[in-house]
Amino acid sequence: MSRHPQPPGRQRAASNSSSTPEIPVAPLPPAALVVTDIGKNYGDAPAVGPVSLRVEFGERVALIGHNGSGKTTLLRIVAGLLEPSAGSVTIGQYKVGSIEARSYLSYIADQPTFYDDLTLWEHLEYVALLHGNDEWEQLASDLLGHLGLFERADDMPNRFSRGLKQKAAIALGFIRPFELLIVDEPFVGLDARGKEALLELLEQANSEGATVVVATHELSFVHTVTRIIALRDGTVVHDGSASNVNVDALVRNEDPVGEHDDKQH
Amino acid sequence: MEKVLPSGVVALRAMRNTRRRNRIADIEWFEALYRVYITAIAGGSAVLFLSGLVSDEKLNASGYADLAQHGPAALGLFAALVVFLGLRSGANGGPLAIEAPEVTIVLMSPVPYSRALRHPAIQRLRTSTFMGGLAGAIAGQLLSRRVETGSFLTFTVAGAIYGACVGSLFITSALLVHGLKISRPVVTAIGTMLVAWQAWVLTQSLAIGVGPFDSLGSIVLAEPVINFQRIITVFVVIVLAGWGVILSSRLSLEALARRSSLVAQLHFAVTLQDLRTVVLLRRQLSQEHMRQKPWFRLRRRRLVPIVVRRGMHSLAHFPLRRIGRMALLAMSAAACQVAVFRGTTPTVVASGLLLFVLGLDIIEPLSQEVDQPDRTDSLPINRGLLMTQHLIAPFVALIPFVLIGMATAYILEPHPATLGMAALVGIPAALAGVAGAAINAVKGAPDPVGGAFEGLAMPPEMSGMTTMLRAVFPPLIAIVGSVPIVAAKVASDNGENVFADTTRASLGACIMVGFVVSWVHQRDAIHKWWRELLANNKAQNANRTRS
Questions:
Q1: Shortest Cα distance from B9 to chain A (angstroms)?
Q2: For residue B311, which of B260, B363, B263 has the smallest C-alpha distance?
Q3: Which of B9, B109, B268, B291 has the highest number of chain A CBs within 10 A, making it the mutation to test binding with A?
Q4: Are B72 and B221 contacting, i.e. CB atoms less than 8 angstroms apart?
Q5: Quick check: pTM over 0.90?
Q6: Which of A212, B176, B330, B443 is surrounded by the fewest CB atoms within 10 Å?
């Protein structure tokens, strides 16, 4: 998978740590994703917030919560598709929505959309080239083969079934270079083979250094993450390591069995 | 300074070309030519109809002086209203509506927004300018037939320039408001002030140049064709348009994402002539939500049927914006009726259409019921009776809007007889507006006795015409309801008893509304009867063939 050779955030982190030993309170180095006190209201009704998060480079995070807990709203704010009513988001060290942040972040939405007049292959070409990935063809072939879409490369994805559309969206999310991958409910509608392929792609991206944040209830993924963030009614109710909590209880929207309350917000 | 990925911009351009090629390859040329043919016929018919409304009689000297004095301010008022709409569109996230994947793919890629959005902004501007110019040219040539001075060409060109400027200003004002992120209340205040200012100049017959849009309005009547004022006005419009296009890079991604899906559905609904869906999507586009807290609470009374109570509950949650819009529609309809009485007969069509739109808003309880066919069918009540009862609350809710219309008529025509006459023509007109809207809502409901029964009795060649008639019929009912004012005008011109003639016409309109209500009540029974008749005929024919 072709990514940026060195994420700007990590370059900055290295230089900061070496040049500021004398400052008594050193500013935090940039992280892959920093969400500061964001909130989103629809009219008078609060949808999310206030939420603050910091996701470090290379983390693999599962975002969980019941329907309507604010997962999609939070991820859409992080992706720049929604404007927060309050607070700020930085991707790497860049303001969300800036050209650098867009080049840094790959977002796979829960409701994929495609052009009516482009084939899947043309979509892949378009997205890859928009992101400056000129050597895209081999990667595209690999991705389509991996997801079982190779035979459908010349078809219009808008006419695909729900599951195939999801796979096509995943291919588009992975065809471009990225450092932070945000995925919203990617397992919905996927067959067993598709789920397996996606898990492998997420694993591979993470092992190559990308930060991965996935909103999901899929236990097979949640059990593999390094950190779980649980939302309830728009606020973070649990944020911590996946190793010492009852993951199943969290996914079922119950409190993790008692003693491990490492809620940060 | 934004860093530009050269390959990204090149890819954007290349893929737009690919998409254009794919679209051209997908065109069904025969169907495209058929559409051009239909559009040409419809457009030509519309122009001929409009030409028929404008007599060939030349204006006399006083008429021309009146036109020269009030024309620029009146045209300026039209421009102000268009700008007001543009400002509102911008505040609601308009004017651009790009495709959903354009948002998730292009606008989330590292291609600068200025590159990605300039093309759709210019496209939108170009279309609006062209359509405005075309409408202006047609209006200009119609005007040239009535004016002694100036040639056909002069008026056509001047009309085209005025129309193009107004069309361009609609998009430009929306782009500026959206790009500069001006809040909705501020935009509404600015727009209202501009319209009020221009209306004040028109009604007070002030000197040309006092109103903010006078110079734009005077383009049509200015002599000679190429003059300094016209050049300056057009130049200002072009500069503003350029500024709007530059600001397109600052459009909100959230608004673009929201509009992208809604506008696609809106176009689809318009294609299907599905007015209810159009109304619903328009409300979503302008983020018009029902009030959480009702305006009033109903006391529990057993006398009021529950369906009527449900209707009143719905009306109690109407947002202030919708109520304001309905009041404006009532005022405009009343103004049109006054214009009919003063001699501009064609405005009776505008009055009917305005009341039809008001009706579409006020029959919300009925429309909601039609939107939920499964729920309606599960209720232990006859569907026809249910639909008819749903008309009671809207009819009651019409009262304040009729009063607003009467007050408007009295302000425009301050005469002791005006109020009585306004009530006489206003009540049937408003009822007919609701009746037309009710037909539109109910005919959208599924037929419980089995599908499109009309198709069974109709050759395919006729079905297109039937579809058109079904679309035209509801607003036509609303227009017919506004006709009593024409009767009043005719009686007044002929020196006959105005009240007697108007009362007769109003009674006729009320009887028509009664028929509509009966149709709503008996629709299912009529469908059932018709279907059985067709089935019997078919069986008889089959027997005859066998024997």
A1: 7
A2: B363
A3: B109
A4: yes
A5: no
A6: B443
One-letter-per-residue 3-state SS of A142-199: HHHHHHCCHHHCCCCHHHCCHHHHHHHHHHHHHCCCCCEEEEECCCCCCCHHHHHHHH
Please tell me whether the peptide bond between A50 and the residue prior to it is cis, using omega within 30 degrees of 0. yes
List of residues 6+ apart from A170 with CB closer than 8 A? A108, A147, A186, A198, A201
* CB of A206 closer than 8 Å to CB of A212: yes
Residues of B with CB under 8 A from a CB of A: 2-5, 7-8, 10-12, 14-15, 18-19, 22-23, 26, 99-106, 108-112, 252-254, 257, 261, 289, 292
CB B163 within 8 A of CB B137: yes
A131 — contact with chain B (CB < 8 Å)? yes
Longest dimension (CA), chain A: 61
Inter-chain touch A82–B254, beta carbons under 8 Å: yes
Contacts of B133 (CB under 8 A, 6+ apart): B160, B161, B163, B164, B167
| Cis-peptide, bond into residue B459, ω within 30° of zero | no
Nearest CA in chain A to B289: A43
Query: What CATH superfamily classification does A9-251 receive?
Result: P-loop containing nucleotide triphosphate hydrolases (3.40.50.300)
Q: Spell out which residues of chain B touch residue A99, defining contact as CB-CB under 8 Å.
A: 2-4, 110-112
Contacts of B252 in chain A (CB under 8 A): 83
Percent over 90 (pLDDT), chain A: 37
Residues B44-76 have pLDDT tens digits of: 777 777 666 665 566 677 777 777 777 888 889
Nearest CA in chain B to A110: B104
Sheet strands side by side (includes A211-215): A105-108, A180-184, A211-215, A60-65, A227-232, A235-241
Convert the pLDDT of each residue in B256-287 to its tens digit.
Answer: 888 887 777 777 776 666 777 788 888 877 77
Q: What single DSSP character describes residue B105? A: I
> Does B103 sit within 8 Å of A81, measured CB to CB?
yes
Most confident of A211-215, B279-283, B409-413: A211-215
Domain boundaries, chain B: 1-53, 58-275, 306-546
Is residue A52 a contact partner of residue A31, using CB atoms and an 8 Å limit? no
Other CB atoms within 10 Å distance of the CB of residue B296:
9
* Contact state of B7 with A81 under an 8 Å Cβ cutoff: no
Q: Distance between CA atoms of A178 and A107, rounded to whole angstroms?
A: 10
- Quick one: which of B317, B278, B271, B270 has its CA closest to B298? B317
- What is the Cα–Cα distance from B375 to A68, expressed in whole angstroms? 25
Question: Residue B526: how many CA atoms within 13 Å on its side-chain side?
Answer: 9
CB B470 within 8 A of CB B454: no
Of the partner residues A44, A113, A176, the one whose CB lies closest to the CB of residue B104? A113
CB contact under 8 A, B99 and A109: no
The three-class DSSP label of residue A97 is: coil
Cβ pair B12:A99 closer than 8 A: no
Could you tell me the residue ranges of all domains in chain A?
A: 9-251
CB contact under 8 A, B3 and A43: no
